[in-house]
Amino acid sequence: MRVWKSLLQTAIHTPSPHNVQPWRVRILSDESADLLIEKRRTLPKEDHTGSFIILTMGMFIEALTILAGHRQISLDYELYQPPSQFTPEQIGKAQEDLLPFAKLHLKRNRDGDESTENASSARYEESLFFTRRTSRISLLPKPVPAEDAQALRSLAREYKQRYEQITSPELIESILEKNIDALFEDLNTPPYHDEIAEWFRFTDRASRQARDGLDYRCMNSSRLSFWLVARFPRLLQFSMSRPMLKKIYRRQLGLVPSIGMLAGPFWEPEDAFKTGRFLMRFWLELARRNLYLHPYGNLVTNQRAADWCRESLGVSGIWLIFKIGFSAVPPKSYRRSVEEVLVD
């Protein structure tokens, strides 16, 4: 059990949509454990295909794989069901609260017997899991170095993904405006609004107690504006208040010198799981290079915004768009403890 808890102390810092942290772990022995999805921590009203929750489980398994490699241990897994069984429709039919996702196995390497996975894990030091974070604060006026952009493209190609970067100020502003419009529209769609608002944390006390969700500190928002959006989303659509709120939100986004995009196989459940393993390494690679990102999820989940991006940016299969660059160290989201993640 000690090894599993050691791995989880760091793996719990894996990112997840809205910081929902959907993973639970049941330790069966020193060598094996069950990985489960906590049903109430999925996002069926926003993540219509289930791709982002499946992606998150792939990221968590990849985090455990990398961390095990640092300890000269190999981690193998067997999925209990195909990823297609974890779409919102399938999860909605489940009676139980904890859904078995994968059986995990640990095997200590013999001296001199180092797997390819373990060798590649050495690239990502454990400390990167703690320095890696989303930055919603203003980026610095410093472009992403060409060598860093090329390294990210190469990493994406290894996983049959595509990384592209935009630096045109005019195009960046168009993308940001489209993101704001999509966000305001989605927040006025009751199923979307009601689901995301459950994860808003308006005070320090609420954030420390829940240790999950969207902490107002990390959102680079005042408690008042965060609360108003949750309670009165129609303000985002009224002709008198909408222009002012758009300016406020654009100001919160700060300086954006570069926007990155990831495109490739994703929207099918099996692809989402594999892509999650890639995204974990991609995000750690950013941290290794002192780069931060902030995803603009509404640009890919809002159909009108997604269509605009495909046509305007000339890239098909986009599944993640984000600002990318250097920034001061942003606030870090809280995480549930290992004890809260473990189940009997």
Describe the structure.
- The protein is of the alpha+beta class and 344 residues long.
- The protein folds into two domains: 2-130, NADH Oxidase; 146-325, 3-Layer(aba) Sandwich (NADH Oxidase).
- It has 15 helices and ten strands.
- The chain has helices at 2-11, 51-70, 88-93, 116-121, 128-131, 146-158, 169-187, 190-197, 204-210, 223-231, 242-253, 269-288, 298-301, 303-313, 338-341; strands at 23-27, 32-38, 73-79, 98-108, 162-166, 200-201, 214-215, 259-263, 292-295, 318-325.
- Strands 1-2-4-3 form a four-stranded antiparallel beta sheet, covered by helices on one side. A four-stranded antiparallel beta sheet has the order 5-8-10-9, sandwiched between helices. The chain has a two-stranded parallel ribbon with strand order 6-7.
- Helix 7 packs antiparallel against helix 14 (303-313).
- The model has no long low-confidence stretch (mean pLDDT 95).
